């Protein structure tokens, strides 16, 4: 599904500022991956570079989605291919309702992928069914995108967008931060349902907490711009107990 190969990235404005220093990562179909690591290790940068954020420049390596390089594609084109990137700070779009935005986005993606577009009535049925994934009330659909949403509602809305848009691969950056326990369970439950539908999910998270509710197939640790360790869910538990210090020696070993 996604292959990140020896990815080196610097800041567009300042090429001496190297942030990713050779990231390797392979995400298979229907797999849930967790990327963990201390603040500043490059997790969000990796998510943004996969999304095609213009602030960063890839100086070496490649990102393949379904076997093809996506480096030359702009963020919209990546989304049309089936990538979904939820950001750490979701934006507000006052004046545009959730429903309108989602139908436009859904149909653009469907058209691009040769799937059937939905008219307003068909979309109404579809979106109402998808509300169940995150236990969302129908009133939500007619509110402006993210405007006046609480932090928890924004995160929940992100998962809802993911449930509606049906992406092949989703990167969720800190979707768990700032959620109370009930919202966390709903979000985790939504992610589990989506992964069951054979979609791949990458959760970028600083904390182990959400992994109490979601069983990742693979856990990776980033330190200083590299993936220094990969394992299964036991790795996340070990990090919870022991922190990241025991891994710091690995960061200085060049891969
Ligand atoms: P994480 O998400 O793991 O906390 P980030 O990817 O946000 O880490 O940041 C990794 C490092 O790259 C940090 O030192 C951060 O300050 C730096 N960085 C990220 N984006 C930029 C940018 N646009 N300009 C300058 N430095 C950046
Ligand atoms: Mg699975
Ligand atoms: Mg981050």
UniProtKB/TrEMBL annotation:
Kindly name one Pfam family recorded for this protein.
ABC_tran
Q: Which residues form a coiled coil?
A: none
Ranges for domain ABC transporter: 2-249
Keywords from the named record: ATP-binding, Nucleotide-binding
Recorded hits in SUPFAM superfamilies, A to Z, give: P-loop containing nucleoside triphosphate hydrolases (SSF52540)
**Gene3D superfamilies for the chain:** P-loop containing nucleotide triphosphate hydrolases
Q: Does the keyword Nucleotide-binding apply?
A: yes
| Annotated signal sequence range | none
Q: Which InterPro entries match?
A: AAA+_ATPase, ABC_transporter-like_ATP-bd, FeS-cluster_ATPase_SufC, P-loop_NTPase
What PANTHER family does the database record attribute to this sequence? ABC TRANSPORTER I FAMILY MEMBER 6, CHLOROPLASTIC (PTHR43204)
Family per UniProt? Belongs to the ABC transporter superfamily. Ycf16 family.
State the protein's name.
Answer: Fe-S cluster assembly ATPase SufC
């Amino acid at each position: 599904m996604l292959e990140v190969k020896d990815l080196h990235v610097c800041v567009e404005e300042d090429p001496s500022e190297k942030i990713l220093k050779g990231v390797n990562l392979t995400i298979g179909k229907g797999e849930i991956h967790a990327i963990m690591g201390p603040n500043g290790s490059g997790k969000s940068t990796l998510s943004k570079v996969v999304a095609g954020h213009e602030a960063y420049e890839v100086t070496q390596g490649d990102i393949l989605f379904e076997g093809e390089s996506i480096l030359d594609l702009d963020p919209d084109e990546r989304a049309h291919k089936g990538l979904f990137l939820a950001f750490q700070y979701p934006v507000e779009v006052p004046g545009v309702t959730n429903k309108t935005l989602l139908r436009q986005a859904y149909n653009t993606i469907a058209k691009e992928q040769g799937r059937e577009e939905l008219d307003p009535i068909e979309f109404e049925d579809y979106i109402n069914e998808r509300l169940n994934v995150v236990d969302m009330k129908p009133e939500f659909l007619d509110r402006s995108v993210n405007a006046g949403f609480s932090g928890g509602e924004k995160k929940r809305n992100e998962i809802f967008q993911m449930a509606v848009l049906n992406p092949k691969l989703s990167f969720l950056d800190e979707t768990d931060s700032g959620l109370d326990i009930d919202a966390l369970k709903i979000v985790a439950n939504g992610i589990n349902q989506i992964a069951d539908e054979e979609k791949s999910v990458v959760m970028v998270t600083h904390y182990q907490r959400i992994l109490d509710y979601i069983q990742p197939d693979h856990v990776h640790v980033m330190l200083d711009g590299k993936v220094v360790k990969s394992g299964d869910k036991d790795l996340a538990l070990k990090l919870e107990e022991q922190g990241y210090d025991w891994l710091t020696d690995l960061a200085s070993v060049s891969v």
